[in-house]
Amino acid sequence: MLLWAGQSVSMTGTELTAVALPFAALTVLGASPLQISLLTACGFLPHLVASLPVGALVDRHRRRPLMIWCNVCQAVVLGSVPLAALLDGLGFVQLYAVAVVAALLSVVFDTAYQSYLPTLLRGEQLVEGHGKLSVSMSFATVAGQSGAGALITAIGAARAVTVDAVSYLVSATTLALVRAEEPAPAPRPAGARLRTEILEGLRYVFGDPLMRPVVLANALVSAAIGGVWSLWIVYVYDELHWTAAQTGICMAVSAAGGIVGGLLTRRLTQRWGLPRLMLFGVVGYALDLVPTLLAGPGTAGYVLVTVGHCLAIAVQMTYVAANRSFRQLICPPELMGRMNATSRWLALGSKPLFAVLFGLLTTWIGLWATLALGALTFALPTAVMLASPLRTLRGVPSRTLQEKSC
Asked: Which residue ranges in the chain fall short of pLDDT 50?
């Protein structure tokens, strides 16, 4: 409960900063579109460069102290933005540095955090925990992004970042209050090298017959999201003639669907099992774009897209919780950090590449056809899992049985 409470506050602050930091560059510094793009790229760079070595380093240390220090450092780094603005010293170099350092700290925190949760929760509790965190993720999207607009209007973009800095201090405090004992990491062999440990994690992820399809499916989902998300906004604006307010309402209603999906995750797991829930949930991504592609301008089309998006997000949240839970339940504890880091490296590293690819496709075949291709791309994760041993599983195999199969 302490972890959930702290993360709920922190995720809301993070969503707020995702809006406030670019607005600070625009309103305070008069940034050009190229400078905004560079600011966004700075936020992706540490995920591409640092994820794999961070995973190996996380497996060498207890996770909770790392998470606390990351939160404290995040508060200091983000707090420098409103302070510099107050002193009339905010510049592009500082914003780029803040984006890079904050993203690097997020890489460390998120890898440690996803590896820490299994030390607090077991079995169905772990599934329920991921379901509740999915609820928080959906709520944070609504509260953070909608609240950002009001806060930026009231106090300015740079000062609004203060809220995120404070949210990290709240998260650090709740983590410090956790009294559950965390086991020490397994001792490393004498002379163990970081490169060797990174390769060990990669061999496990790509060599395990159950882990491999789950991680690859997750990477394909993330890649397709990176390709179609911004194009979806362009499509509803240009082709369906939605206003910004209508788009915001659709996103808010859809996030409410995510809350419902997160709350139902444990019950659905008990009925179907994690492998089947993953197979069912990933279909929600492929169906998400169908109402948009079929709808026309006007009220009927708006209702169709909004309701369809809401149902799809509800199903997708069950997939997110099931995917993370399954990975953590079958992964050996000593490889947990490297497994999570490899998964994040593949997922986040593919997003900018697919964003560029789908942007080029739009110029060649048009917006509607590109979104239709995106819907087909979302079918690939389902195909990957159906071609694996997951299609015959109902529950999570014991680690002993899994090691024998490997």
From this structure: 400-406
